[in-house]
Every structure is written in C-alpha cells, then in structure tokens.
Amino acid sequence: MLTLRDFLDYCDLTEAEVATISRSESVPPIIAAQLAHLLKQSCSNDACLVARHSDQRA
Predict the structure, then answer these.
(1) Where are the domains of the chain?
(2) Potential cystine with 2: which of 6, 12, 17, 46 (Cβ 3.0-4.6 Å)?
(3) pLDDT at position 8
(4) pTM for this structure?
(5) How far is 4 from 49, CA to CA, in rounded Å?
C-alpha cells in the first residue's frame, strides 16, 4: 500500500501544496494529492501553456 509520502515523492508535490488543496476542496490529503497530480499532468501539454500565457495578457 502506498502512503501519502510515497505519493508526494512520486508526483513531486509538497505537503504544503496538498494541504492547501485539501483545505480548499474539503477532501482528504490523498485525494488532494491525486487532484494536484492530475492538474499538473493536464497542464503539461502545450495547449495549456498557450492558454495560460494568453490569460496573463488579458
């Protein structure tokens, strides 16, 4: 069984990042870690980077 620490190390997340998401979304830390990991994955493609860059210009 994976621990939260194992997951954080694998996903390159900090405890502070996960704690913030956990509080914000009212979910347990392991769920917050999964959400953060999915978000990082989805924003790693070029389309997301372009969209984020255009949002900053507005």
Answers:
(1) 4-57
(2) 6
(3) 84
(4) 0.66
(5) 28
